[in-house]
UniProtKB/TrEMBL annotation, chain A:
A Pfam match: KH_6
Species annotation: Priapulus caudatus (Priapulid worm)
Gene: LOC106821205
Domain of life of the native organism: Eukaryota
Domain (K Homology): residue spans on this chain: 153-200
CDD domains: KH-I_Rrp40, S1_Rrp40
Compartments (UniProt record): Cytoplasm; Nucleus, Nucleolus
The protein's name: Ribosomal RNA-processing protein 40
Keywords assigned by UniProt, alphabetized: Cytoplasm, Exosome, Nucleus, RNA-binding, rRNA processing
InterPro entries: Exosome_RNA_bind1/RRP40/RRP4, KH_dom_type_1, KH_dom_type_1_sf, NA-bd_OB-fold, RRP40_KH-I, Rrp40_S1
Automatic annotation (TrEMBL), chain B:
Protein name (database record): Exosome complex component RRP45
Pfam family membership, one: RNase_PH
InterPro entries: ExoRNase_PH_dom1, ExoRNase_PH_dom2, ExoRNase_PH_dom2_sf, Exosome_comp_Rrp42_subfam, PNPase/RNase_PH_dom_sf, Ribosomal_Su5_D2-typ_SF, Rrp45
Record keywords: Cytoplasm, Nucleus, RNA-binding
Region (Disordered): 400-453
UniProt cross-references to PANTHER family, sorted A to Z: EXOSOME COMPLEX COMPONENT RRP45, EXOSOME COMPLEX EXONUCLEASE RIBOSOMAL RNA PROCESSING PROTEIN
Subcellular location(s) per record: Cytoplasm; Nucleus
Length: 236, 453
């Protein structure tokens, strides 16, 4: 397995030499990999990645979101049905979000959420043939950053790969721009980024910079960020 | 399947940006996205891109029996296909309301404005005429579908050649292409549409709206016009009030835009013809190599070649081939696979040589011959439109009968439509054929058919 890290893998490949090292190790397989009996098979074509100690996944270009348990996603409320909200998270089926799954929510004290509003939520249930279920609290009943997103700012749609890249890299376009411009951001694993700046101009500039950074190296991102900041501040 | 819903914050933001005269792609209010026109290997096949909106038009012909009411006229048939591939909200099969709207707009623009001389399509009066069929396939929807389709349809019609026919007595011979050269359709003029999106109760307007802008707009107005400032179609839909001077302003802007697009169409047609005559390569395969798919300049940003080892894949491929019973001998040249590099992570552009790895981001605009940004800044366009206003007035004393759009006519129509028209979804606000001249263009003599092209 070690020898194919960083190389191109295609669907149907079997990852070998998995338990060669020390008898039994616990392996976490991410997107693009699947357990097939005693071995691990590749289901997407891309580049195999590894993170210590034993996390493996395949980097590939994808736009369609497939729900996975534990993902933080940004959803748009499409309907209220009884005591649940129907929330679009970009998956094949809309997810459900209970009225009670908010911090300090009671039967009387319902969250003020209308159709078209955005929520930052965590996926509690994500099974194959089953409706995904969202929550906006952790297991201690606290919001921990989840919840209703303010009705201002902008919602950006991008590829799943870019979102992963933004969340994985410590030094990305967001940190470079954040040194000069104040903004709030919420990144959903479903390829949606909520962004809020002081002015419309900054929001447009930052969202375009984020979209462009997808295919750039770190140095290029740095140059671009500098240019964006300069032009926003009136130089150039 | 339904399209992804529009969130409240997106709607609010787009409206706020428009109120500040900003657009998401940095365009000015009256500026088009870059337009790319490509022609296929076969005649009558045209692919048009406006930004990320992509449309493919294919023209075909067939001999049919004419309608009894018009025994010596050919038939022009338009068909628009909105496939789910273009946008998840489009359904396959039956035509949606939006599909009917686009189809009808194209029919009014192309058929009712008589841009194709239908009488020249007659082979034998009352018995045999040519039917010209234009199939417009929407490949990707990112707003402004009507403009994109109209460019594709008229460019495909101008590009098309029908087989030559000889009639001797009762006998009709349709010559195959190797026997006699095919003949072009007689295109009288090139009508094109320009879409305006209205916001803030008709107070602000935008040219060439994107999908996002179309979703939040109050309504839109489609102006069909040709280079000679002859109005062929006017279509207003949505819930808004249109003021008289807004209509006149839109027509003036449209006239300026259409001139530029017509030049682009003629230019690309000439290039394609020249390539065909001189025996150079032509068709999509050639063009796509020149123009990278997706005008979005995202795709033009390459990172430095990242070397990715593909030897194991090559070997796997070889073993797979071997397992199939050695039918295909596949040579895995190690020296060559060593050079395989992925230029862009994610898009997987692979190549065995070292082409295309340059970073173009810092170098500013790439000027591609077929890609044009229709206007450089706002100030010129406003100047242009102010000049055009005076031009309209001059046209009023034009001696030519076929120039129908005079300032008096315009005023008369507008007055008859009162100061403001409350328009309902997909109807109302259409031009009356008389004053805007959609229909009575037919009075013009047939003899000068070729004059406009």
């Amino acid at each position: 397995m070690e020898d194919s890290i960083g190389k191109v893998v295609i669907p149907g490949d079997i990852l070998q030499n998995l338990d060669e090292k020390k008898g039994k190790i616990k392996v976490t397989v991410g997107p693009g990999l699947i357990r097939d009996g005693s071995h691990i098979a590749v289901t997407k074509s891309g580049i195999l990645r590894h993170r210590e100690p034993s996390v493996f996944w395949v980097d590939c270009h994808q736009k369609r979101y497939v729900p996975a348990r534990g993902d933080n996603v940004i959803g748009i409320v499409t309907a209220k049905q009884g005591d649940v909200f129907k929330v679009d998270i970009g998956s094949s089926e809309p997810a459900s979000l209970s009225f009670m799954a908010f911090e300090a929510a009671t039967k009387r004290n319902r969250p003020n959420l209308n159709v078209g509003d955005c929520v930052n939520a965590k996926l509690l249930v994500a099974n194959k043939d089953c409706e995904p279920e969202l929550v906006c609290i952790d297991s201690y009943g606290r919001s921990s950053g989840l919840g209703i997103l303010p009705n201002e700012g902008f919602l950006l749609q991008c590829s799943i790969g870019l979102v992963r890249q933004l969340l994985r890299n410590k030094f990305n376009v967001l940190t470079f721009l954040g040194k000069a411009i104040q903004y709030e951001v919420a990144i959903g694993m479903n390829g949606r980024i909520w962004l809020h700046c002081h002015t419309v101009r900054e929001t447009i500039a930052i969202s375009n910079a984020i979209c462009r950074s997808e295919l750039m190296s770190d140095e290029e991102v740095q140059i671009m960020s500098k240019k964006v900041v300069d032009s926003l501040q009136g130089f150039e | 399947m339904k399209d992804h819903p529009l969130s409240n914050c997106e709607e609010k933001f787009v409206l706020a940006a428009i109120a500040e005269n900003r657009r998401f792609d940095g365009r000015g209010v009256y500026i088009y996205r870059p337009i790319v026109i490509l022609y296929g290997h076969d005649r009558g096949c045209c692919h048009v891109q406006i930004g990320c909106t992509r449309v493919l038009a294919q023209v075909s012909c067939e001999v049919i029996i004419p309608k009894q009411t018009r025994p010596n006229e050919g038939v022009l048939h338009m068909n628009v296909e909105l496939s789910p591939m273009a946008c998840p909200s489009f359904e396959a099969g039956k035509q949606s309301d939006y599909g009917v709207e686009v189809n009808r707009a194209l029919e009014r623009l192309l058929r009712d404005s008589l841009c194709i001389d239908l009488e020249s399509l007659c082979i034998m009066s009352g018995e045999k005429v040519w039917q010209i069929r234009v199939d417009v396939h929407v490949l990707n929807h990112d707003g402004n579908l009507i403009d994109c389709s109209s460019i594709a349809a008229i460019a495909a019609l101008s590009h098309f050649r029908r087989p030559d026919v000889t009639v001797s007595g009762e006998e009709v011979t349709i010559h195959p292409l190797d026997e006699k050269d095919a003949v072009p359709l007689s295109v009288n003029h090139i009508p094109l549409s320009v879409t305006f999106a209205f916001f803030d109760q008709g107070r602000t307007l935008l040219v060439d709206p994107t999908d996002q802008e179309e979703r939040v707009m109050d309504g839109k107005m489609v102006v069909g016009i040709n280079k000679h400032r002859e109005l062929c179609m006017l279509h207003v839909s949505g819930k808004m009030l249109v003021l008289q001077d807004q209509v006149v302003r839109c027509v003036n802007i449209a006239a300026a835009r259409v001139g530029e697009i017509t030049d682009l169409i003629k230019d690309t047609l000439e290039k394609d013809n020249a390539a065909r005559k001189s025996g150079k390569e032509f068709g999509f395969a050639k063009c796509l190599a020149d123009v990278i798919l997706g005008v979005d300049d995202l795709l033009k940003h390459y990172v430095d070649s990242m070397s990715v080892d593909t030897t194991s894949v090559g070997q796997t491929a070889k073993t797979v081939v071997d397992a199939d019973g050695n039918r295909v001998q596949m040579e895995v040249d190690n020296a060559e696979t060593g050079n395989v590099s992925i230029k862009v992570p994610g898009t997987g552009k692979m190549s065995t040589n070292t082409e295309g790895g340059a970073v173009t981001w810092c170098e500013g605009e790439e000027s591609d011959s077929d890609v044009i940004l229709l206007d450089k800044n706002d100030s010129t366009s406003s100047e242009v439109s102010s000049k055009q206003v005076s031009a309209v007035v001059e046209l009023s004393d034009s001696e030519e009968e076929s120039v129908l759009m005079t300032s008096q006519d315009l005023e008369r129509t507008e007055l008859s439509k009162s100061r403001a028209i409350e328009t309902r979804e997909n109807r109302g606000g259409r031009c009356r054929g008389k004053s805007f001249g959609g229909r009575n263009r037919g009075k013009r003599g047939r003899g000068n058919g070729q004059r406009y092209f």
